[in-house]
Amino acid sequence: MSLNTKKDVQTVNPDSTPIHRLIEGVVIRSAITHADERGTLCEIYNPAWGIHPADMVYAYTFTLRPGKIKGWGVHYKRDDRIFNIQGSVKCVMYDARPDSPTYNMINEVHITDYDRGLMIIPAGVFHAHQNIGQIDAIFVSLPSNPYDHSDPDVHRLPPDTDQIPYKFSDKLGW
Predict the structure, then answer these.
(1) Span 42-72, pLDDT tens digits
(2) Which CATH entry fits the domain spanning 27-156: 2.60.120.10, 2.30.40.10, 2.60.40.740, 2.160.20.10?
(3) How many Cα atoms are found within 13 Å in the side-chain-facing hemisphere of 84?
Protein backbone atom coordinates (compact mmCIF):
# COMPACT_ATOMS: atom_id res chain seq x y z
CA MET A 1 0.00 0.00 0.00
CA SER A 2 1.40 3.38 -1.00
CA LEU A 3 0.33 6.43 0.97
CA ASN A 4 0.69 9.98 -0.30
CA THR A 5 3.21 11.28 2.27
CA LYS A 6 5.27 14.44 2.43
CA LYS A 7 8.97 14.01 3.21
CA ASP A 8 10.46 16.25 5.91
CA VAL A 9 12.94 18.87 4.75
CA GLN A 10 16.30 19.47 6.40
CA THR A 11 16.12 22.10 9.16
CA VAL A 12 19.52 21.71 10.86
CA ASN A 13 23.08 20.81 9.93
CA PRO A 14 24.80 17.75 11.49
CA ASP A 15 26.21 20.05 14.22
CA SER A 16 22.60 21.09 15.11
CA THR A 17 22.93 24.64 13.77
CA PRO A 18 19.86 25.86 11.86
CA ILE A 19 20.18 25.96 8.08
CA HIS A 20 17.69 28.79 7.55
CA ARG A 21 18.93 32.28 6.79
CA LEU A 22 17.95 34.98 9.26
CA ILE A 23 16.66 38.40 8.29
CA GLU A 24 19.54 40.90 8.00
CA GLY A 25 20.38 42.22 11.47
CA VAL A 26 18.43 39.59 13.41
CA VAL A 27 20.61 37.83 15.97
CA ILE A 28 19.62 34.92 18.16
CA ARG A 29 22.07 34.06 20.93
CA SER A 30 21.24 30.81 22.66
CA ALA A 31 21.40 30.90 26.43
CA ILE A 32 22.81 28.26 28.73
CA THR A 33 21.02 27.53 31.98
CA HIS A 34 23.33 26.40 34.74
CA ALA A 35 21.69 24.19 37.36
CA ASP A 36 22.71 22.84 40.73
CA GLU A 37 20.93 21.68 43.89
CA ARG A 38 19.95 25.27 44.75
CA GLY A 39 18.30 26.17 41.45
CA THR A 40 19.36 27.73 38.15
CA LEU A 41 21.20 30.72 36.72
CA CYS A 42 20.89 31.97 33.14
CA GLU A 43 22.60 35.07 31.74
CA ILE A 44 20.27 37.37 29.81
CA TYR A 45 22.56 40.06 28.41
CA ASN A 46 26.23 40.96 28.63
CA PRO A 47 27.75 43.82 26.60
CA ALA A 48 30.98 41.79 26.45
CA TRP A 49 29.24 39.40 24.04
CA GLY A 50 29.47 42.13 21.39
CA ILE A 51 26.18 41.19 19.72
CA HIS A 52 24.68 44.70 19.78
CA PRO A 53 26.37 48.11 19.87
CA ALA A 54 23.84 49.98 22.06
CA ASP A 55 24.24 50.17 25.82
CA MET A 56 21.54 48.72 28.05
CA VAL A 57 19.36 51.78 28.74
CA TYR A 58 15.91 50.45 29.57
CA ALA A 59 14.32 47.18 30.67
CA TYR A 60 10.80 45.85 31.12
CA THR A 61 8.96 42.56 31.22
CA PHE A 62 5.87 41.42 29.34
CA THR A 63 3.77 38.29 29.28
CA LEU A 64 1.73 36.46 26.69
CA ARG A 65 -1.17 34.18 27.62
CA PRO A 66 -1.52 30.68 26.10
CA GLY A 67 -2.91 30.72 22.57
CA LYS A 68 -2.65 34.50 22.24
CA ILE A 69 -0.69 36.55 19.67
CA LYS A 70 1.07 39.88 20.28
CA GLY A 71 1.83 41.64 17.05
CA TRP A 72 2.35 42.64 14.43
CA GLY A 73 4.51 45.42 15.84
CA VAL A 74 7.44 47.39 14.45
CA HIS A 75 9.77 50.09 15.75
CA TYR A 76 11.52 52.61 13.51
CA LYS A 77 13.79 54.32 16.07
CA ARG A 78 15.01 51.36 18.12
CA ASP A 79 16.07 47.74 18.00
CA ASP A 80 14.37 45.18 20.21
CA ARG A 81 16.45 42.87 22.40
CA ILE A 82 14.06 40.28 23.83
CA PHE A 83 14.86 37.36 26.15
CA ASN A 84 12.30 34.68 26.95
CA ILE A 85 12.21 33.62 30.57
CA GLN A 86 9.40 31.06 30.44
CA GLY A 87 7.06 29.45 27.95
CA SER A 88 6.89 28.12 24.41
CA VAL A 89 6.59 30.82 21.78
CA LYS A 90 6.65 31.16 18.03
CA CYS A 91 8.22 34.47 16.96
CA VAL A 92 7.54 35.48 13.38
CA MET A 93 9.50 38.33 11.80
CA TYR A 94 8.95 40.15 8.51
CA ASP A 95 11.60 42.38 6.94
CA ALA A 96 9.79 45.48 5.65
CA ARG A 97 12.99 47.50 5.05
CA PRO A 98 13.19 48.23 1.27
CA ASP A 99 16.98 48.72 1.38
CA SER A 100 17.65 45.45 3.23
CA PRO A 101 19.20 42.46 1.42
CA THR A 102 16.50 40.34 3.08
CA TYR A 103 13.58 42.64 2.16
CA ASN A 104 10.23 40.76 2.27
CA MET A 105 11.84 37.75 4.04
CA ILE A 106 9.90 35.91 6.74
CA ASN A 107 11.56 34.16 9.70
CA GLU A 108 9.70 31.83 12.03
CA VAL A 109 11.62 31.00 15.22
CA HIS A 110 10.52 28.78 18.11
CA ILE A 111 11.73 29.63 21.59
CA THR A 112 11.06 27.45 24.63
CA ASP A 113 12.15 26.85 28.20
CA TYR A 114 14.50 24.22 26.75
CA ASP A 115 16.11 26.58 24.25
CA ARG A 116 16.05 30.09 25.68
CA GLY A 117 17.83 32.91 23.99
CA LEU A 118 18.29 36.61 23.39
CA MET A 119 16.73 37.81 20.12
CA ILE A 120 17.81 41.06 18.52
CA ILE A 121 15.18 42.40 16.13
CA PRO A 122 16.32 45.46 14.16
CA ALA A 123 14.26 48.60 13.62
CA GLY A 124 11.97 48.21 10.60
CA VAL A 125 11.41 44.46 11.09
CA PHE A 126 7.82 43.58 12.00
CA HIS A 127 7.46 40.89 14.63
CA ALA A 128 4.71 38.94 16.33
CA HIS A 129 4.84 36.43 19.17
CA GLN A 130 2.38 33.55 19.50
CA ASN A 131 2.22 31.55 22.74
CA ILE A 132 2.05 27.92 21.58
CA GLY A 133 2.39 26.51 25.11
CA GLN A 134 0.11 25.84 28.05
CA ILE A 135 1.37 28.52 30.47
CA ASP A 136 1.99 32.26 30.31
CA ALA A 137 5.14 33.14 28.39
CA ILE A 138 7.33 35.66 30.18
CA PHE A 139 9.85 37.94 28.45
CA VAL A 140 12.41 40.56 29.43
CA SER A 141 12.83 43.37 26.91
CA LEU A 142 16.04 45.41 26.76
CA PRO A 143 15.40 47.81 23.83
CA SER A 144 18.24 49.89 22.42
CA ASN A 145 16.44 53.16 23.34
CA PRO A 146 14.27 54.02 26.34
CA TYR A 147 10.52 54.16 25.80
CA ASP A 148 9.33 57.69 24.98
CA HIS A 149 5.93 58.01 26.68
CA SER A 150 5.13 61.24 24.81
CA ASP A 151 5.99 59.79 21.38
CA PRO A 152 5.83 55.96 21.43
CA ASP A 153 7.87 54.24 18.72
CA VAL A 154 5.37 51.41 18.42
CA HIS A 155 3.47 50.87 15.18
CA ARG A 156 0.97 48.01 14.88
CA LEU A 157 -0.90 45.87 12.38
CA PRO A 158 -3.49 43.21 13.32
CA PRO A 159 -2.32 39.56 13.35
CA ASP A 160 -4.55 38.76 10.35
CA THR A 161 -3.33 41.62 8.14
CA ASP A 162 -2.94 41.10 4.40
CA GLN A 163 0.05 43.49 4.40
CA ILE A 164 2.40 40.77 5.70
CA PRO A 165 2.66 37.50 3.75
CA TYR A 166 2.16 35.22 6.77
CA LYS A 167 -0.94 33.62 8.25
CA PHE A 168 -1.12 32.35 11.81
CA SER A 169 -2.78 28.96 12.16
CA ASP A 170 -4.50 27.18 15.01
CA LYS A 171 -3.21 23.85 13.67
CA LEU A 172 -1.10 21.83 16.06
CA GLY A 173 1.58 19.64 14.53
CA TRP A 174 1.45 18.59 10.89
Answers:
(1) 888 888 888 888 888 999 999 999 999 998 9
(2) 2.60.120.10
(3) 26
